[in-house]
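Can't paste images in this forum, so I'm doing it all in text. The chain is below; anyone willing to post the predicted structure tokens underneath?
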Amino acid sequence: MDRQWLWLIAVVVLCYAGIVLFMFLSQDQTVYPATTLTPEDADALAKLQGLAPWPRGAVIPTAYLAEPTTGAVGTVIVFHGNGGHALDRGYYAAALNRRGYRVLLAEYPGYGARPGPFGEHSFVSDALSTLDAAYAEFGPPIYVLGESLGAAIASAMARDRPQQVAGVALITPWDSLPDLAQAKYPLLPARYIMKSRFDNVANLASYEGPKAVVMASEDEIVPNVHTRRLYDSLGQPKRLWTFEGVGHNDWPAGPEEAWWSELVDFWASTADEN
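Text version of the structure:
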């Protein structure tokens, strides 16, 4: 092989290594495109939606509380997707308050008005603190609902606090983040450079509570094969809702949607089995 070919191969290898290094160093910006708010803006936005900062008296709240008009039949902690912030997700409170549930819209470190580092360890340990505090204040039953990235947080809650988590709902979830990343970048070693693993299949392998899964048929972010692989791995009780003709961010979230009632009925119908 002549020197010209050796130089060409070296340039290709160096470019490939540079792309891999760039992906490794920039993955937090890709995985966690946080939207931030000033504390004043967050407080004003919460008041506009009738949400109370929680825990009460916190300088910077870790969640926002919405109480139903009558006595709560349970508490749902909501973990949002990787874009925006918790105060974008008032539709969860509208849907679940209507059905008698207290709602906590949890916020992640580094999102909204909260300081803190990104990453699986940071988010999961913070969510566990939120769950423990909610359990101490409100008691059971507590359910966890997560959307996309939030589904991975909810799965980790079920793994680490199975006795406190009465049930989970996973909206447009993946199987594991490295598997999803590898599918997105098949020509790169994406599976091996992911710092956050978020392995929902492993995290829910031994969880015995009810597991609800929502899949969008035209999901452009989490292809259906990854959601289906997770669902197929789950033990009973479980239930799948597939919404046709919608994508990752436009599944039916309105409070009038019948599937919300089906979800809480599913949780309640399995309560005596666990």
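The first strand starts at residue 52 and ends at 54. The beta strands are 52-54, 63-66, 74-79, 101-106, 142-147, 165-171, 211-216, 238-243.
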